[in-house]
Amino acid sequence: MTSPAEFNKLSAYFKRTITAKYLIMKKSKEYLLDPFFRDIDPQWQAEIPELSAVFEEERFSPGERLINDWGELYLIVDGIFGKYEKTCPVRYAISGESLMIPNHKHRYQFIALSDCHTYRTSLRQLEEINARNSKVFHLYANLRDKQQTYLDYRHKLLSLNNQDKYDFVFDKYPDLRSYVKHHELARFMGISSELLRRLLRDHDC
Questions:
Q1: Is the confidence at residue 138, as pLDDT, over 90?
Q2: Which of 18, 25, 108, 181 gives 20 to 30 Å between its CA and that of 11?
């Protein structure tokens, strides 16, 4: 039997817990967006307070494709996407990275390879904010530049000696084998399936 004093103590504890969870939920969006922006502008929340409002939470299941609307920007909170030119993998986008749909006609496909949690906005929405607050352009330009950095990763990968490709890929994507088929991974690395099998066998020994 719970005494009145114990009941009041438990009641106060649960009230504090519920309040804390409410505050965490209320701040969670800004908390999740912060890693994408703080290196560009540590004061982004104070200087561009309207920014978080234009990002909508979206979740994807494995195999689900992005709609491919030009200029869409996805911030990947959790999960991994594949970017394909026709059927050839040209990039894997992982948690903590941004994924920008080109603002022009293209042949890319973007596919969720796992359960993914993202925040999405459009170039049009960012331009509307930028008309009132020019600091948005600085953020967008930095995120756009990072897209080229991500693509440069594969160019570097393809230029490496075959024996160096294993560490280069699996240092960045340690769990990639869980999400893509063997022949796709070999194609991404620019080697034959047989060579990839040999590299995996040598490193698994």
A1: yes
A2: 25
- pLDDT digits over 34-48, tens only? 999 999 999 999 999
Q: Other C-beta atoms within 10 Å of 108: how many? A: 14
Q: Would you state the structure tokens that stand for residue 28, as one six-digit string?
A: 């969670």
Gap between the Cα atoms of 118 and 184, Å rounded: 24
**132 contact partners, CB below 8 Å, separation of at least 6:** 50
Residues 173, 159: Cα–Cα separation, whole Å = 18
Interhelix angle 193-204/182-189, rounded to 10 degrees, is 100
DSSP string, 112-131: ESS-EEEEEE-HHHHHHHHT
| Distance of alpha carbon 53 from alpha carbon 45, whole angstroms | 11
Residue of 43, 17, 15, 20 lying closest to 30 (CA atoms): 43
Biggest alpha carbon–alpha carbon distance for the chain: 73
Q: What is the pLDDT of residues 97-109, one digit of tens each?
A: 999 998 888 889 9
Alpha-carbon distance of 84 to 107, in angstroms, equals: 8
Q: DSSP strand E in 41-188: where? A: 56-60, 73-78, 80-85, 88-94, 98-100, 108-112, 116-121
Q: Is the pLDDT of residue 25 over 50?
A: no
The pLDDT of residue 153 is above 80 = yes
